[in-house]
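User: Predict the structure for this protein chain, please.
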Amino acid sequence: MKHHWTLVDTPSLLKTAEKRIRTASIIALDTEYDSFRYFRDKLCLIQIQTGDSAWLIDPLAGLDLSILGEVLGNLEVLKIFHAGDNDIRILKRDYGFAFRNIFDTHRAASLLGCRYLSLATLLESYLGVVLVKKMQRSRWDLRPLSEEQLDYAALDTAHLIALYEKLSGELREKGLEKQARQLFAGMAEVAWRPKALDRLGHRRLAGYPELTPEQKELLCRLFRWRFEKAGETNCALFMLLTDRQLIDLSRLENPSFKSLIGPGLLSPEKGHRFGTELLRVMKNEEDRGN
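Assistant: Here is the predicted structure, written as structure tokens:
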């Protein structure tokens, strides 16, 4: 059965959603974000369930989402997540939202001793709902989103309120409410932490032991350059340069712009974009200007 949802990507639709969200005492939340193609996870969709409707809010549509901050920080409104740590981190990072009065079905089920904690498993065991989801690697950052994508996103929150009711009842029966509240309060305090360079990470790349000392030193510089450039361009490390390309570049003798481009090395497009910088790094001129 198709679940009812509304894509919120205009100010007028946001006003409609705001009325429903403001009057709800319990909402369920989830997000879709891309952590595969980007250095810094990119928030692509916010799903909010109110009763029998899902509001799929597009954070890429330039909307003023301050209304969500009021609701998320409101003690009178219960916010339900499933394994919501990263959702909370990203929403705090992008909007500065604070979170009060949350319930996490993943943490609750873990406290209750459930062995398998995926949303699909919990929905089937507690509610008899079979969730079929096949779009984890979908391109959530591209517009327009397909109806299939939006159906998928709406399912993430469709049954969370009913699952919360089952789990909270079991926590109450087992005298675990206080422990659960402490867990949820701690979860509300999680914060975004930028990625940090692993200064020894280059030593774990396949092929490192076979390099000469000079090549190893060059690989270290290239590894650092890739990390810094990925952060600057918000591009996943492997999409900028693969580990194999780093190793192959570190083996180049007397590197030139021409020798950077070729099979297994840089494409002409990447050579054009990054060749000058890479040559500077490879010749150890990165701190000497021109």
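DSSP finds 13 helices and six strands in the chain.
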